[in-house]
Automatic annotation (TrEMBL):
Family according to the record: Belongs to the Niban family.
Record InterPro entries: Niban-like, Niban_1/2/3_dom
Ranges in coiled-coil conformation: none
The protein, known as: NIBAN protein
Top-level division of the source organism's lineage: Eukaryota
Amino acid sequence: ATVSEPAQKCCTENIQPFLTSILEELMGPVSSGFTEVRSLFDREVNEIIQDFHKSNDTAKLKENVDQLLSLPFNSVKMEPCYLKVNLLQELLQDLRSRFKVYHIDLVIQRTQNFMQELMENAVYTFEQLFSPSLQADSAKVATTIEKVKLRVLK
């Protein structure tokens, strides 16, 4: 009871007025990282479509879709996504001094984990929606891939 009122006053005066601007600053790199995840997924599926147009080989298509499932665990391909979030390191340094924010690396790591999880969900959903279409007429497959990709990106 004796701590509640001073703590509430401190939060109201020293923290709450800055929360909106802090969130806006933090969301820049976070949004950029998630946009990069989306772009990476889009590029990878577009490569699958182009490869299928060239080869028209459904066995190769299945192999490419299987490789897509490993995309979230491909550190080389995911690295550009993760680098976008590393900008939080600089932003959070300022917060550390102003608001005593600790464990900056943990915030960045968790954000990167969420990015990987998002990619896992995207490739899994793509595979689940597209797999039944592998048996379809090859003329329809490329169109189906594009439709599934757009559905996942939505």
